[in-house]
Structures are given as C-alpha cells and as structure tokens.
Amino acid sequence: MADPKTVLILGGGVGGLVAGNRLRRALPAPHRVVLVEREAAHVFAPSLLWLMVGARTLPSISRSLERLKRKGIDVVRGEVEAIDPARKRIVAAGQVLEGDYVIVALGAEFCPGAVPGLAEGGHTFCTPAGAVALRGALTEFEGGRLLILTAAPAYKCPAAPYEAAMLIEADLRRRRLRDRVQIEMFAAEPGPMGVAGPEVSRAVRAMVESVDIAYYPEHQVVTVDPDARRASFSNGVEADYDLLVYAPGHRSPRAVVEAGLAGESGGVSVDPHTLATRFEGVYAIGDVTTIPLKLGKPLPKAGVFAHAQAEVVARSIARAVTGRGQVAEFDGHGECFVETGGGRAGFGSGDFYADPSPRVTLRRPSRFWHAGKVLLEKTWLWRWF
Ligand SMILES: Cc1cc2nc3c(=O)[nH]c(=O)nc-3n(C[C@H](O)[C@H](O)[C@H](O)COP(=O)(O)OP(=O)(O)OC[C@H]3O[C@@H](n4cnc5c(N)ncnc54)[C@H](O)[C@@H]3O)c2cc1C
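Above: inputs. Below: predicted complex with flavin-adenine dinucleotide.
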C-alpha cells in the first residue's frame, strides 16, 4: 500500500458527516479520516421546525458525534481556529493537525447581530437553543400579533421560514388559538424560494396566504426595538408585535475568512462540479461555498446540496488515494420537502445548474410527502451514526 494518507474534515454538519462516513468506508486503515467539530452532537436541522411546534424533543433529533469513533473516524472536538490551505494544516483546540487532503465543511454562521435588537426582541427556529426557546414562547402565547421575518434576502434553506409560518399557523389552529392571532410575514426577498423560479414562488406564496397569513415581500428589517416590541423596515414601514419569529442572515466562519478562502461573493469559491478550491487537495462543500448559478444568484444553502457534494468529494479523494472508483461530479440536482402543517408537505425537485435558470417542479402538498420527510429524518439519524 502507498503511504498512509490523512483526510481532515472540518465540520461535522451535513457535509462533514457524509464525507466522513463515505471516506471511512472507502479508505482502508491505516489511512486516517479526522473530523473536527466544535459541538458534541449533530442535530438534524430540518426537524428544528417540528421541535418548534412541540412535535420533537431535542434529544430525539440529535446524535453524539462520539459514535463515529466506533466506525474508525477520529473525532476531534474543538474549534477550528486557523486554516493554512497551502500547507493543508489547521489549528484546532490548540493542536496543529496536518492532512494530505482537507474538506472544509464549516457551514455558514448565523449573524442575527446584523440587525440591532433582533436577537433580543425575537426568537429563531434556526438553532437548537432558539427552537427550544421558541417552543416555550409559543406555548405561553395566548394571542396577539405574531410577526415572522426573514432578516436577509438569502438564508439557510429557502423553504424553512415559509414552512415555519405554516407550521406555527397549524399549531395555533390545533390549540384553538388561531382566531386570537394575527400572523404576518415580512420577507426581505421579493418572494418565496425565488431561485426555484416564478411558478414555484407563486405556489408557495399561495400556500402561505391560503391559511390567512398576510405576506409582505421586499421588507428588509433594519432594527427591532425589544422594549416597544416594534420592527422597522428599510422602506419606512413599522410593525408592532407581541411575538417575533425570525430567520437570520449568515456569513462565512471567521477561520475561513482569515485563511483567505472566502472570495468576494462571501463564500468559498469552488469548481461547481468537483468542489475543488484553488488550493490543491483542498475542497469546500455545503453552506460554506458560494456557487454562482447561470441566472446570477448563488446556489441556495441547503443540506441536500451539502450531502451530494460530500459524496462527490469523498469519491474523488478515495480515487486519488486508492486509484479505485469512478470519477464523480456534482450536477446541481436537489430536492426538498415543504411542510405545510397538518401532517402534509409539498415536494420540490429539479436541476439548479440548468441554463438559463433552474428547472424546478413543486408537487402538491399531501400526506405522502410529509411521510417522506419523516422517513428522511429517521434514516438520516440511523444511517450516519
Ligand atoms: C430550520 C432549518 C431547516 C432546514 N431544513 C432543510 C431541509 O429541509 N432541507 C435541506 O436540504 N436543508 C435544510 N436546511 C439547511 C441545512 O441544514 C444546511 O444547508 C446544511 O446543514 C449545510 O450543511 P453543511 O455541512 O454545509 O453545514 P452545517 O450542517 O451547518 O455544518 C457545519 C458544522 O461546522 C461546525 N463549525 C463551524 N465553525 C466551526 C469551527 N470554527 N470549529 C469547529 N466546528 C465548526 C458547526 O458546528 C457545524 O456542525 C435547514 C436549515 C435550518 C436552519
């Protein structure tokens, strides 16, 4: 066997988890697969929406990353502090780690602080702690004006805020509180899921409005006054609220920016098919990347893409190390469930690399697609741990 190689995987979210599993299976010992992650547990993010409405508990959607050690993946718990992509060397938890290959899968960092008062005045469903706190706030909420905001035109998972709005609406209906609550959604973007095309966007907007949620697109929140409970928008509109729910914007992780990996577009520039960065042997996958599409907007940040990209990069590295396996390329295909409440979901799928714009279709909400999302959750938490 050739020299033993080390693959460093930075981040144990969707992309890192899939890459770690795949590489461990493809590379025999003594090749090393090292995964560095600051959190002790991986949380299945799509289920945060169910956690928010009390349909899940945090332990039921989390798995300890320690379990990966049983498979032969070296898990290093700690903060990635510095990355030297030219030398494929990183500093994590105070120790220096060197690799022959590096996969940067550090995701995108939420930055609610970009809007003064937002974090203090509202609740987000986008983090485990936020979704738990929001569940508590919704349980205590007995009526009034409920505002749902997207705090930036681009955020993780384009469907999530719209699903959140519909799930909250259904939860209030189930608890017989709906007629005491006015739900309004103020979105920074021109419409739901715009990258998926006007037809999908119109359909999702219609789903939201059909359950009496007032929808105001192109409203960029600029400040929130937590004492007055008032959100102010860049177009001069002000909205008072009793409960504020938001999806925050995001930015590149500090270590990625300081390493010179993040380009002008904010994320790491990669080859759209191989996910190779400009540094040899260094790849970036998932939310940490910015991949411009033909229509001029970036590929949305979604786990489905992080997953597919991880499969491609794992195959490329395995092939480079062992000389076996097929060449793989990421083709821009993706799909997502759109939860609409009441045990139903729609299903969007398509080709995001299509020229001149993504070709995406949305299937009508049904119990079938909701069951599909439940199945995805169960298999995800079983398959990778
Ligand atoms: C509420 C919600 C619902 C969603 N629903 C869906 C859905 O239905 N379908 C879908 O496709 N996508 C969905 N997404 C989006 C999806 O979760 C992300 O796109 C996906 O997790 C991106 O994977 P990733 O590996 O790039 O990053 P992540 O999964 O975010 O992983 C990055 C990891 O890196 C770690 N990390 C970051 N910085 C450091 C550091 N300096 N040191 C050590 N560790 C670090 C983080 O702790 C994290 O574990 C949803 C997101 C949210 C918030």
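The mean pLDDT is 96.
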